[in-house]
Amino acid sequence: MADATGSVAGPLVLFAVVSLAPSALFWCALKVPALVHWLADRRRVRLAPADPPVERLSADLRRVHRLLAGYPPGTPAARRLGTRQAYDELLTTACREVGVAHRLDSLPEGIDRDLERLRVEESLRREGLAVP
Description:
By secondary structure, the chain is mainly alpha-helical. Helices cover 76% and strands 0% of the residues. The chain is built from four helices and no strands. It is rod-shaped, with a radius of gyration of 32 Å.
């Protein structure tokens, strides 16, 4: 009896494989390209640069510099300090992108930092970045 069951199972398995294989191959042909595109998109997202483009950095530097220079007398010190810190952060990012050395993050607020800010602006200009 076991011999008869074994002899029937072989052709049934073969029939199932032969009848389901074309459908499985067709399904894979439809789904694999979508899976490959999805994986490529995920990889592209990880490889995207974290910093904004240099043109945008330059525009942001000019905009924040205009804000800083255009504050009227009587503007709260906290607003001036915040804008100056934002400007220094933009300068730091621009230095990183262009490859200019700076000490903005190690100097305290004051004359030394103001001089370093001027030096960094000039170095960025020499590298071709349009800064104020």
